[in-house]
């Protein structure tokens, strides 16, 4: 088995030369490799893409074996991947998925981090997070529009539509959390983002998600004051531990306008650094005293959440940003950990009711010009969607590509299949130089059951019902997606979520057009079904508006 020191540097091939027997297999190969590109992945040497321990393949042997299988896979075969390891090839047909993936799934009674870690250490499992193990991660851009939409909605609800003259206090500048400073400044505000790891801060500076940094709290707070007074949109990274710095800011009597957090709190062992420890000390203690480490991390999360609750009490708009920190603090004895809401019920659910969520695509040519062509074509296809047009223009100006050029764009049911078919035409007519890969996050409208996040506080109390992601994955397979995945534990950790992923390749063929028209209609429709069934009127109205049949519509 390869060790980290022997790890190769991976970048996806570009251009039109095929290494596989078809473009769908080639797309899977390139997107797997793209997930591990050093520009994209947080710790590529350990195959870690983002989100704590979210991996693209179980180990380097498995990675090489997947690559080999994809290169030999025929158009009537399907590769099976079990928690990052290729385990079989089955006979299918050209319209069927070329890869089926299951990651981190455990029988519910055993679905804990303890059991997972035991299996992981024996080499029997890996943590797939959401888009890491399903090979459709596109770097921090993949989350930035969702983060932008969240802060935009917070601005509409609480700050008359703009964050100008406000400051946001948060932590976590990792793969996903790194989008926070850019999303806040795109909404006009000032962001103070704490991270304990200087390399993460540097990565966000390099990719222009973060404007400047300091390791001194006094300097950071003075800069915040200066930019807030000037109504200047600006982000500051602060090197430090959130569980130490939040209580200190409270002690000084300062009150941020918004408070949230995106440390990898979902994983108390690998994701969250306890207060009082440097990164190196944490690494030593994690190995030497794993149980004590976990207790210390949970206790720090309690301190962290208690500070967030106190900020809320004093008047800050405070919300959980999808890392399960409230449940973790509750485990450590914080009884009112759920005093502040999650971001989905607070800001995002109305979008989910219409199947709107993080649609995305990547240019397999590797040429940024292909994304410029798709951006322009999207604006032409949806001229009435002003929010989308504003986003695409801002993204073009502000977002640095990581790995293969890609674009995120939140659109919904009744729109995604049109976009997919249009991309297929662009490939067929040669207006883009190679096929386009189309996918989405699992953090979407109809693909996830996660009671502390996407399905928190559902209108009918169905938060923990996980039939929906299973139905979602089955519809994707039935419709002929290029690869489909079923995961457990993404975003919020083991035992807390089940979710599915779908990717489809627009290669300009008739087959692709057939599959796209089914898959990209059905997939967001699942979100509308899920929310209509839970009694949301917006979802029921949207179903009527786009002609979606809901058998037992609520009266
Ligand atoms: P990541 O592991 O890449 O980054 C986490 C960062 O937190 C690291 O940079 C780490 O140094 C920092 N950190 C850890 N403990 C800290 C502490 N005590 N103080 C300060 N910094 C600390 O993870 P990511 O991909 O950025 O995801 C972050 C969290 O958000 C995860 O829990 C993930 O599951 C969740 N998530 C949320 C969304 C969303 O839309 N809200 C989407 C995806 C993931």
From TrEMBL:
Localisation: Cytoplasm
Domain Urocanase C-terminal: 350-543
Active site: 409
Cofactor(s) this protein cannot do without: NAD(+)
Alphabetical list of Pfam families matching this protein: Urocanase, Urocanase_C, Urocanase_N
Domain Urocanase N-terminal residues, every copy: 10-136
Superkingdom of source: Bacteria
PANTHER family (UniProt xref): UROCANATE HYDRATASE (PTHR12216)
Function: Catalyzes the conversion of urocanate to 4-imidazolone-5-propionate.
Identification of the protein by name: Urocanate hydratase
Taxonomic source organism: Geothrix limicola
């Amino acid at each position: 088995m390869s060790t980290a020191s022997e790890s190769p540097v991976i970048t996806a091939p570009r251009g039109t030369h095929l290494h596989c027997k078809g473009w769908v297999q080639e797309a899977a190969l390139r997107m797997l490799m793209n997930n591990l590109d050093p520009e994209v992945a947080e710790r590529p040497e350990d195959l870690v893409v983002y989100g704590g321990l979210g991996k693209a393949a179980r180990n380097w042997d498995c990675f090489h074996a997947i690559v080999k299988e994809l290169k030999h896979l025929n158009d009537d075969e399907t590769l099976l991947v079990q928690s990052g390891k290729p385990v079989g090839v089955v006979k299918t047909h050209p319209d069927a998925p070329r890869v089926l993936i299951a990651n981190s799934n455990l029988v519910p009674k055993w679905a804990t981090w303890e059991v997972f870690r035991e299996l992981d250490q024996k080499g029997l499992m890996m943590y797939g997070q959401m888009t890491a193990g399903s090979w459709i991660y596109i770097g921090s851009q993949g989350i930035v529009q969702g983060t932008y939409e969240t802060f935009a909605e917070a601005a509409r609800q609480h700050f008359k539509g703009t964050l100008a003259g406000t400051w946001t206090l948060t932590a976590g500048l990792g793969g996903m959390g790194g989008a926070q400073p850019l999303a806040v400044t795109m909404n006009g505000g000032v962001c103070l983002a704490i991270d304990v790891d200087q390399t993460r801060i540097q990565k966000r500076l390099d990719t222009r998600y973060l404007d400047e940094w300091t390791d001194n709290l006094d300097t950071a707070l003075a800069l915040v004051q200066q930019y807030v007074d000037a109504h200047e949109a600006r982000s500051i990274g602060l090197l430090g531990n959130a569980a130490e710095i939040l209580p200190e800011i409270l002690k000084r009597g300062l009150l941020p306008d918004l408070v949230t957090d995106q440390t990898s709190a979902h994983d108390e062992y690998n994701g969250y650094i306890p207060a009082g420890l440097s990164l190196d000390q944490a690494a030593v203690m994690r190995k030497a005293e794993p149980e004590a480490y976990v207790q210390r991390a949970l206790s720090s999360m309690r301190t962290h959440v208690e500070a967030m609750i106190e900020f809320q009490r004093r008047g800050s708009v405070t919300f959980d940003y999808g890392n399960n920190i409230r449940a973790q603090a509750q485990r450590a004895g914080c009884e009112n950990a759920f005093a502040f809401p999650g971001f989905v019920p607070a800001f995002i659910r109305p979008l989910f009711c219409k199947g709107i969520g993080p649609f995305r695509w990547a240019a397999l040519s590797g040429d940024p010009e292909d994304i410029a062509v798709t951006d322009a074509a999207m604006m032409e296809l949806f001229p009435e969607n002003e929010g989308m047009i504003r986003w695409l223009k801002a993204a073009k100006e502000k977002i640095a590509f990581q790995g293969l050029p890609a674009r995120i764009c939140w659109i919904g049911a009744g729109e995604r299949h049109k976009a997919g078919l249009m991309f297929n035409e662009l490939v067929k007519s040669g207006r883009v130089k190679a096929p386009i890969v189309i996918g989405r996050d699992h953090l979407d409208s109809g693909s996830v059951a996660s009671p502390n996040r996407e399905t928190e506080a559902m209108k009918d109390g169905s938060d923990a019902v996980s039939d929906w992601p299973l139905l979602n994955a089955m519809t994707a397979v039935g419709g002929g997606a290029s690869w489909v995945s079923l995961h457990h534990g993404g975003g919020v950790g083991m035992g807390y979520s089940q979710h599915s992923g779908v990717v489809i390749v627009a290669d300009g063929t008739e087959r692709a057009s057939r599959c796209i028209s089914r898959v990209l209609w059905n997939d967001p429709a699942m979100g509308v079904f899920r929310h209509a069934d839970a009694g949301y009127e917006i979802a029921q109205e949207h179903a009527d508006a786009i002609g979606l049949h809901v058998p037992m519509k609520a009266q």
